[in-house]
Amino acid sequence: MNTPVHIPATSCRDTPILKERGQREVFCGLTGIIWLHRKMQDAFFLVVGSRTCAHLLQSAAGVMIFAEPRFGTAILEETDLAGLADANDELDREVGRLLSRRPDIKQLFLVGSCPSEVIKLDLARAAQRLTQIHAPHVRVLNYSGSGIETTFTQGEDACLASMVPVLPGTEARELLLVGALPDVVEDQAVGLLKKMGIGPIRVLPAPRSSDAPGVGPNTVFACLQPFLGDTAAALERRGARMISAPFPFGEEGTTLWLRAIAKEFGVDDATFEAVTAAPRARARTAIANASEHLRGKTIFFMPDSQLEIPLARFLTRECGMEAIEIGQPYIHKGLVGPDLDLIPAGPTISEGQDVDKQLDRVRAARPDLTVCGLGLANPLEAEGLTTKWAIELVFTPVHFYDQAGDLAGLFSRPLRRRALLKLEERA
Q1: Rounded mean pLDDT for each run of 10 residues along the chain, 427 residues in total
Q2: Domain boundary at 222, 249, 280, which?
Q3: Binding-site residue set
Q4: Which residues are annotated as part of the binding site for [4Fe-4S] cluster?
Q5: Is there a domain that residue 408 lies in?
Q6: Can you give the residue range of the structural domain that contains 217?
Q7: What is the pTM of this model?
């Protein structure tokens, strides 16, 4: 566990943050349903919103609404939005019909597509009322997926935060891993920790409500995703304590994340090295091979996924890139501070977005690679800039050792493609 880690004499931790509040170009928090509904096997996500929201979910999921078994949309008509009808009565009827058809549902999330002032419904009160009606078979919770209030990954944060107050209490000393990962990646993380003798290990979200973790004063938790600020705060209010570490992207981030947990549970250096040596070596080799086209290249992060700061740490320290600007929708230093500590001072750190001003900075800098949302990628490509879709970094397995080479490859592929196109043009 005593592998030295070089921390720059001057890092981005104390770099003044450029705070921008203007037009944004991001997906809304409803998008998180696309991965959460697959993770939580007995949950159903009922979006209370307009036909536009239904179309978004159709497009994002690539299926017809209700073709997937665990999410759908309760569509508000014009009379509902105008406050001319009692939408609460209609919502109660829709929920009753849904639960009568689907007795397998144990958790029902009412997801607001807009603030309550817009949809004329207080979904928090509706959730309490419906829980009383349908308990103990079903627990009804609510959260906001509004794009007015959130970026797309914060839908997961809002969902998990809504679950924390109703988790059972426990006095047991347990490790809680917080954040949704693909099952194969989660299994890798749990497997490494168990080999070190760490346990019991619980996860949030659990696959089924019956497996929901307890939380209490002896619970320690580690976040798997850097966008879980509200969930972390909710767990701390329940008495749990967070293990602070860089996020597990790449060999360095994964090692430091695992090391922080190992230290908390008293794992000795020899055991840590025995468990991590082989996967660390594989990760370093995979990163070196995949980052050949990244070394010496510049990168500009536009704010989108909330993964920007940990990814910038990975790309600058492990892949040899130079960051020009690292933009993130919201910066929670309690979560990403350890990653900021490792990024050498130099790049602009920006929070929020004024898209026109940021595009001006992109055009002036002409970076080798720009990480941005789907809506900005094509226009920038038309201007001769190489881009990477931020959303792909959320839907692709990128955490921990075995995915480290794949993560580097996601950034190198656009640059390789651009180089090949230039060769073809010359030919």
Answers
A1: 62 91 71 86 86 71 54 64 62 89 92 70 89 92 79 90 96 97 95 96 95 97 96 98 98 98 97 97 96 95 94 97 95 96 95 92 96 90 93 91 96 88 66
A2: 280
A3: 28, 53, 114
A4: 28, 53, 114
A5: yes
A6: 174-280
A7: 0.90
